[in-house]
Amino acid sequence: MFTVKNNFSVNEASTTLVVGLFEKTASFEGILGDVNSALGDSLATLVKEGDVSAKKGVVSKVHTLGKLEAKRIYFVGLGKENQFSFETARSSFGKLFKACKNAKLEEIEIVLDSFVTDKVDASDVAHALGEALPLATYKFADYKQKSNEPTKEISSVVVYTEQDKEEVDASLTVGYIYGKGTNSARTLVNTPANMLTATDLAHYAVELATKYELEYEILDKEEMENLGMGALLAVNKGSVEPPKMIVIKYQGKDEWTDVIGLVGKGITYDSGGYSIKPKDGLVGMKTDMGGAAAVLGAMEIIAELKPEQNVVMVIPSTDNMISGNAFKPDDVVTSMSGKTIEILNTDAEGRLALADAVTYAKHHGANYIVDVATLTGGVIIALGNHITGAMTNNEALFERVLEASNEVGEMIWRLPITDKFKERVRKSNVADLNNSPGRDGHAIFAGLFIGEFAEETPWVHLDIAGTATSSSEYDLGPSGATGVMSRTLATLVERFGEE
Ligand code: BES
Ligand code: MN
Ligand code: ZN
Fold this sequence. Notes:
Elements (H helix, E strand, L loop, with lengths): L1 E4 L10 E6 L8 H9 L4 H7 L9 E5 L8 E6 L8 H17 L4 E5 L10 H15 L19 E5 L4 H26 L7 H14 L3 E5 L1 H7 L2 H7 L7 E7 L8 E6 L1 E5 L8 H4 L7 H16 L4 E11 L11 E3 L5 E3 L7 H14 L2 E8 L3 H7 L4 E5 L2 H14 L3 E3 L4 H7 L7 E2 L7 H13 L4 E5 L5 E2 L9 E2 L4 H12 L2
Parallel strand pairs: 1-6, 2-4, 2-5, 5-6, 9-11, 9-14, 10-11, 13-17, 14-18, 15-16
Antiparallel strand pairs: 3-4, 7-8, 8-11, 12-13, 15-18, 19-20
Helix pairs in contact: 3-4, 4-5, 5-10, 8-11, 10-16, 11-15, 13-16, 14-15
The structure holds ligand BES, manganese (II) ion and zinc ion.
EC number: 3.4.11.1, 3.4.11.10
Subcellular location: Cytoplasm
Function: Presumably involved in the processing and regular turnover of intracellular proteins. Catalyzes the removal of unsubstituted N-terminal amino acids from various peptides.
């Protein structure tokens, strides 16, 4: 896919040349200077006349009409140089690749150094480029008869740089791995629930683990019964599909200590159960395994990059359905931890599944736990569709998750925890906890419920109900599943391993 070359001269490029352009560039120097003279000193005029724009996020195409070997030039507007960031680089490349895809280009040649600034070095730019390509051009292989027709795709990206070739090449590859892992998560989320049962999800995990020679464990219903996973099993009761507890271990250290537990909600379809959702609320509930997809995407990235860190991934998986055998409001169930739970709402099923998964992650030695879940509509009301809600019992761990999320450009924002909220989760006449204290602040109740099972283990909760999908397309992807948190979690693990 990528070829890195040194010693660029302007007529070496023969396909589509891509150049970054900052606003108010006083004089065109270096490659820009060469391009400008080849175009007969017309670049300044093109900018002035508005045919080429240096504004952030604007991609302008100029045909070279035989003046250069390259057939056309794509100028990528980058805005003000002093405001340019890693994130701007990534989204600008996203715009570029979308434009290339629309134009059905198969080969492009990028002058990498035209994107490099004091703050964003060649390695950063290469990472952003490598990541943006798979993210921005991702398309879910849907089930339309027409979409089986082959389409033209970008298959070759030549990267020209005067910086260290190996370093740039390595960064391109790392970025590409991040993008690919995220796309795997997107595909899982986009897959209809009739094609992705808990059993299918378990198969996917086994294939992933086998490919990278990772240890795995898939618990079936009987094993769960023996372990007393009454919370997850309650959710599964109404289903004809057997539940699965899916575990993958990645060992990056000599000893199985200092283990990060990544726990992802794997509800393959959420009807709400007897507390059934209104008909509009049912549409889209195939995405209720977005947390599972996020941790699987992260595991793929981790398995590729092999950081020196131990990770245990745990996914509790089932659908939440209705039948004569289904669990009901007023039921009391006993979780694996021994804590009993009064069911007040069968649509608050995610926290039940996650309760046993968190306990099981600790059982597998997790010293830190990060859970990811499409948990509540409440978080969408609170934070909208581009910010993931976070909660924690440990400042230091939260800081590290926050840093990772900032690095990859996936925003998170913390929700508060108070004793009053905690009391509500523990209020029940018949059990230790209840699964639905009310609509007021319910994103917080849901998170706190999971925290009851993390207990003293440092824990961060990420509610991705709003961020797991996007209703419209954006620079780094189409509408549909976003694959959110795969990159944050993989980065968290990578940075942990660097200590
Ligand atoms: N899976 C839903 C949350 C959800 C809503 C995800 C919208 C994605 C988009 C979750 O299981 C749920 O039903 N939550 C309820 C909780 C309530 C019953 C306390 C909710 O948010 O209404
Ligand atoms: Mn629900
Ligand atoms: Zn749900």
